[in-house]
Amino acid sequence: MTADSEDIAIVDLDLPRTTWSRVHSSMRTLYLKLSREPDTRWIRFFHEERESRVVIKRHGLWIEEGYIVFDCLLDDVETHHLLDFRSSVEFANDKYRELMQAQREEGEQNRQDALDEKKELVHLRARIREEAETDSSAPGQGANVEVALPLPNGASADDEFADFNARRDEWRARFRAALASANKESARGDD
After folding, report:
1. Phi and psi for 34 in degrees, rounded to 5?
2. Are 40 and 64 in contact (CB under 8 A)?
3. Which regions in the chain score pLDDT beneath 70?
4. How far apart are CA 126 and CA 130, in angstroms?
5. CB within 10 Å: which end of the chain, N or C, has fewer?
């Protein structure tokens, strides 16, 4: 299981970061440490769940650098805020798992579609080559018809599939790395 597929949990209260709130002098700004830094999709699900419910004791809240940061009265943390946050974290984890599963299924379907297409192209090429060979051996045909060459280095169609898949997977990995980097930069810019 990859780090991105592990559920996020509230694991600690960072006391050194606790400070006076700007909302009111009787309030504090607390930092609840998460088990890992969430990506922007998880954060969107977290906020989506929070916006679906009205809770009177809510004040300022944001997520930054792997923390849920919020303003509160200390007496309300255990009785209201932790329960509220855990509900939102659980919802975000569930929705994120569903999203990851859907992406895995879509990726698998795309790989299968690409493989099916590649096989069809190889079969089409074989039919075209077979027709060319048949036409060149037929009586009365001109001498300018090219005969299909065998695959290079004695390679089989399976070797071509493997080479095609390896190149495609390499480009997909590059794309995903670039996308993840762009998302991370975008998330930093949003904070």
Report:
1. -95, 155
2. no
3. 1-5, 138-158, 189-191
4. 6
5. N
The whole-angstrom separation of Cα 72 and Cα 15 is 14
Is 20 a member of any domain? yes
Displacement of CA 176 from its chain's centroid (Å): 8
Distance, C-alpha 177 to centroid of its chain = 10
Cα-based distances in Å from 63 to 1, 21, 48, 187: 24, 16, 13, 10
Q: How many CB atoms lie within 10 A of CB 129?
A: 15
Q: State the sign of the Cα–Cα–Cα–Cα dihedral 78, 83, 84, 89.
A: positive
- Please give the structure tokens belonging to residue 158: 């399976």
Residue 142: strand pairing partners: none
Number of domains within the chain: 1
Model pTM score: 0.58
Joined together, the tokens standing for residue 126 give 């074989």
